[in-house]
Amino acid sequence: MVAGLLCAVAVVATAWTVSTYITQQGFPKDMRGNPVLVPQPSEMVKSQTDAVSTRNGLTLRVPSTGLSVPVGELNEVNGIIDPPGFSSAYLVRNYGAPLARATTGTVFVVMHSCRGGAVCPGNYLINVAAGTSSLKPGADVYVGGLHYHVTGSQKVYKPDVHTQTDIWTNAPGRLVLFTCLQVPAQTESTDNMIITAQLVT
């Protein structure tokens, strides 16, 4: 069971002037290239997370929603899994199985969704109005060269994610996708959307 809490935080894309944009080039960007204003972790946490936004040209694709983004990787640190970027999905190195051994265990992939007009990978996986996943059972998901079929989804209150043993089960050929479930009021997200899938052999 995971010892910590997944916290793929939701963010707001703010209204920027040209001058502000020029002076804030260090902020991460959403999938449309818009800067996203978020608190930055300490240098020590950044070092321990050791995140990369792309890995060997790998992609996450969900044809039914049009999602196609690079896949990077990161580590959970101090009970937090928090992707640094807003235009990639991230494999979690220190849980489950690495992609190269996906047949032997669960591959965990995390990504942000955004509110306030920003578009992030997780926005393609959620139906905000319905409060559900946008992926139906049987939908195709491709991670790198691997093909999965969606088996289900669930909404989980963020503080409870670490206690849900069924989420963190390490089972052969299993994929778990995490993102924030945004809300119609565009207020802060309090739930994660967790989507499971099974490797097609």
Short structural description:
The protein is mostly beta strands and 201 residues long. It has helices at 18-23, 43-49, and strands at 5-6, 59-62, 67-74, 80-81, 89-92, 107-110, 126-127, 132-133, 140-143, 146-157, 174-181, 191-199. A hairpin with a 2-residue loop joins strand 9 and strand 10.
Query: What's the mean pLDDT score?
Result: 86
Number of strands: 12
Oligomer: single chain
Q: What global shape is seen?
A: globular
Helix-strand pattern, N to C?
EHHEEEEEEEEEEE
Q: How much helix is in the residues?
A: under 10%
What strand order characterises the main sheet?
A: 2-3-5-6-11-12-10-9
Classification by helices and strands: mainly beta
**Alpha carbon gyration radius:** 16 Å
Helical segment count: 2
Biggest sheet layout: 8 strands, mixed, barrel
Strand content: 25-35%
Query: What is the distance, rounded to the nearest whole angstrom, between the alpha carbons of the first and last residues?
Result: 27 Å
Low-confidence stretches: 1-23
Describe the protein's architecture and organization.
The chain is mainly beta and 201 residues long. Helix content is 6%, strand content 30%. The chain is built from 2 helices and 12 strands, in the order βααβββββββββββ. It has an 8-stranded mixed beta barrel. Strands 1-4 form a two-stranded parallel ribbon. Strands 7-8 form a two-stranded antiparallel ribbon. The longest helix has 7 residues, at 43-49. The chain is globular, with a radius of gyration of 16 Å.
